[in-house]
Design brief:
The protein is mainly α. It is built from 18 helices and four strands. The longest helix is centred in the C-terminal third of the chain and has 37 residues.
């Protein structure tokens, strides 16, 4: 029986799905609530005419909230950045790593992440307010009454908006189908699909695209989607052998299992990091009144080849960097040794560690090249001589597909758990009643 057929028979799962949809609707309604004292219509005009900037990333993950000057303009990007930074800090500081192994320690680190989120919110909100008061670099009058009062009000409003979105994500995680913040980001990206489809039909209507181009576009789209799904679900299984166990007179046979290592263990973090590192300083240069810096920023952003080459190299670098921080071959080797397990043909200890390091190095190379290729394919297809209207960025595809796969896995886990519970209840009902005769 498929998962879809099982949904009507599980009221608890239906409630969780409906609750998740309800929270996502609340989030989407908040996207259309504007910041007080801002001409949102003027921002939409400027956004439609400007080139690449760091604010494009914020606008992407906020579902268009930035270009609408919404109270949710920063989205959950500050918290994501904070969580990534804290995870890297925890891996580099031994005391924090030991603290993270305890339940109370995890709560403290989560609290530190929230404090860091406030700092990042104030920084990004300050940058946003400065950009709004200067007309996003165009000199247009976007703010009705600029000044200190507008600055403070907007910074606190945007910070509160980010924390409200975080709270919505937590509600989905606790009472919905899980992965709250990831679902909010994916929903924000998916909201851009109707606009992209509309642009595609518009190109067909005005004659810029023909049937063959549309067919080629669909084929490439399907190939990219299939490749991303295939790689995201692929593992390198290292065989693991467990020794025999003796309990009294009983001797259990040796068991064999495997150690699953993802081909892309870094997920979508390298593209997000690369985008932030690459575009943030260039955007700041654009708003600093220094002609040489302004010219450098504009020429770099408008040169597609150099921009995508640097972007791909940064993605590869952050893939190696983040994978090395998250996966510790020594720790994996020690865990196998503690459980009495071993890799066939490999001695426990340093030899096992070196073997896992070698496998991880090869997987990281494959994962890094895969991420870099997926991230630059849309830009390559949009450039000449192809000029295919590939409106979805590689980072967007990775996030949407990854979240979709995780959500399906969550639902399947819920179904499996429910089936086990039902099986246990039926088994208990079939057992005959026993009467104690005294």
């Amino acid at each position: 029986m498929s998962s879809v057929d099982s949904l009507p028979k599980l009221p608890e799962l239906n409630k969780r799905i409906l609750f998740t949809l309800f929270i996502l609707i609340i989030y989407r309604l908040g996207v259309f609530v504007p910041i007080p004292g801002v001409d949102s219509a003027e921002i939409l005009k400027i956004f439609s005419n400007q080139g690449k900037s760091f604010f494009d990333i914020i606008n992407l993950f906020s579902g268009g909230a930035f270009e609408r000057a919404s109270i949710f303009a920063l989205g959950v990007m500050p918290y994501i950045t904070s969580s990534i930074v804290m995870s890297l800090v925890v891996k580099t500081i031994p005391k924090l790593e030991e603290l993270n192994k305890e339940s109370s320690g995890k709560k403290k680190i989560a609290q530190y992440s929230r404090y860091l989120t406030i700092i990042i919110c104030f920084f990004q909100a300050s940058l946003l307010v400065t950009a709004l008061q200067t007309g996003l670099g165009t000199g247009a009058n976007i703010v009705f009454d600029p000044g200190l009062s507008f600055y403070l009000l907007t910074v606190f409003t945007l910070t509160a908006g980010t924390f409200f979105v975080m709270w919505l994500g937590e509600q989905i995680t606790n009472f919905g189908i899980g992965n709250g913040l990831s679902l909010i980001i994916a929903a924000s990206i998916i909201t851009g699909a109707p606009s992209a489809i509309g642009k595609l039909f518009n190109f067909v209507a005005i004659g810029d695209l023909n049937i063959l181009t549309i067919i080629l576009y669909l084929i490439i789209m399907l190939v990219v989607l299939y490749s991303v799904v295939f790689v995201e679900r692929s593992f390198r299984k290292i065989p693991v052998q467990y020794p025999q166990k003796t309990q009294g007179r009983k001797v259990s046979m040796a068991q064999s299992s495997h150690l699953p290592l993802k081909i892309n263990p870094a997920g979508v973090i390298p593209p997000i990091f690369a985008s932030s590192i690459l575009l943030l300083p260039l955007t700041i240069f654009n708003y600093i009144d220094v002609p040489s810096l302004n010219q450098l920023s504009a020429s770099f952003l408008n040169n597609g080849f150099i921009y995508n080459l640097v972007f791909a190299l940064l993605v590869i670098f952050f893939t190696f960097f983040y994978t090395g921080m998250v996966i510790n071959p020594t720790e994996l080797s020690d865990n196998l040794k503690k459980n009495g397990a071993f890799i066939p043909g490999i001695r426990p200890g340093n030899n096992t560690t070196d073997y896992i390091k070698g496998v991880m190095s090869k997987l990281t190379i494959i994962g890094a090249l895969y991420l870099a290729l997926v991230c630059v394919i849309p830009a390559i297809l949009n450039a000449k001589p192809f000029s295919l209207p590939f409106f979805f960025g590689g980072t967007s595809l990775l996030i949407v597909i990854g979240v979709t796969l995780d959500t399906i896995q969550q639902i399947q886990s819920f179904l499996i758990s429910d089936n086990y519970d039902n099986y246990g209840n039926k088994k208990r009902k079939k057992e005959p009643k026993r009467f104690n005769m005294r």
